[in-house]
Design a protein that fits this description.
CATH superfamily of the largest domain: Fructose-1,6-Bisphosphatase, subunit A, domain 1
Strand order of the largest sheet: 3-4-5-6-7-8-9
CATH architecture of the largest domain: 2-Layer Sandwich
Largest sheet: 7 strands, mixed
Number of domains: 2
Radius of gyration: 19 Å
CATH topology of the largest domain: Fructose-1,6-Bisphosphatase, Chain A, domain 1
Helix content: 25-40%
Structural class: alpha+beta
Shape: globular
């Protein structure tokens, strides 16, 4: 059985394109920004897109569960009895959007049997739309609206080795990781989904997320794409990323595991050093806290 029908996928693509048009227009206008938590922002644009996307997916998939970032009540569907769950992030990379950058995206992920099945990532400011999943393939839409196959391009271990690490993780773990893996060059862009796509496209070999804030609407779609591309998605101990209720904080839908996404050669070569670097930092933090 296919993940979605061709007609369903076309409707999803059109919904994302409409949402992206709204985001691009809103970026040219004034909007309000609120702080949901420490360094966690939401705008009135996120909220409006959340309502638009929620309504569109609820109409298209009335028997499925719909979970969106800005509708806190929707998280209850994760522990419900739905066979399929759609996770929607109206703007992934909100800080980049606030700063009128290009590295934000609209993301959708489909979870079935506690496994990511398919993902859609649309970067409106770049006019880049990606989708695909397991036993389906990876696809992208070009500037003329044509569908093209997205071919994964592994970044080989060699002189130029790139690790994607977000700003918060760079501040906390960057020095320790650089000491253990001096051959790696750090880079970062806003959206979780766009970082994963950078690895798929060969612009980086590894994406490391350690700060314990990433949620199911951030990960379901991108990790479905990553797995379809042949990437490994694991934690610091090499255990596969899990999506079952025992692996997710039920109220926030935050992953209990840190997340490493990378090509097999990178995982094999770098994972032990990454684990040691994180342990170095945590030991230092415990020492400072005990003084």
């Amino acid at each position: 059985m296919s993940i979605v029908t061709a007609e369903e996928n076309e409707a999803i693509l059109q919904t994302l394109l409409q949402g992206g048009q709204q985001a691009r227009q809103a970026a040219l206008e004034n909007f309000e920004v609120f702080e949901k938590g420490r360094e966690d922002y939401v705008t009135t644009v996120d909220q409006a897109l959340d309502r638009f996307l929620s309504a569109a997916f609820a109409q298209q998939f009335p028997s499925d569960g719909i979970v969106t970032e800005e509708n806190q009540g929707s998280a209850a569907a994760f522990c419900g009895c739905h066979g399929r769950l759609w996770f929607i992030d109206p703007i992934d990379g909100t800080e980049d959007f606030i700063n009128r950058g290009e590295h934000y995206s609209i993301m959708v992920g489909l979870l079935r049997n506690q496994q990511p099945q398919a993902g859609w990532v649309y970067a409106p400011a770049q006019s880049r739309l990606y989708w695909g999943g397991a036993d389906w393939g990876l696809f992208q839409q070009d500037d003329d609206g044509n569908t093209l196959t997205l071919e994964p391009h592994p970044q080989a271990l060699g002189d130029s080795q790139t690790l994607l690490l977000g700003d918060r993780d760079q501040r906390r773990f960057g020095t320790a990781i650089a000491a253990r893996l001096p051959e790696l060059t750090f880079d970062a862009i806003g959206s979780f989904g766009l970082k994963v796509l950078e690895v798929i496209k060969g612009q980086a070999g590894l994406y490391v997320y350690l700060n314990g804030r990433v949620k199911l609407w951030d990960t379901t779609g991108p990790l479905a794409l990553a797995q379809a591309a042949g990437l490994i998605c694991c934690d610091l101990n090499g255990h596969a990323i899990q999506f079952d209720p025992n692996s997710i904080y039920p109220q926030s839908l935050i992953h209990r595991q840190p997340i490493i996404v990378g090509w097999p050669d990178y995982i094999e070569a770098c994972l032990p050093a990454l684990r040691e670097a994180v342990m170095d930092v945590r030991r230092q933090e415990l020492t400072l806290a005990s003084r």
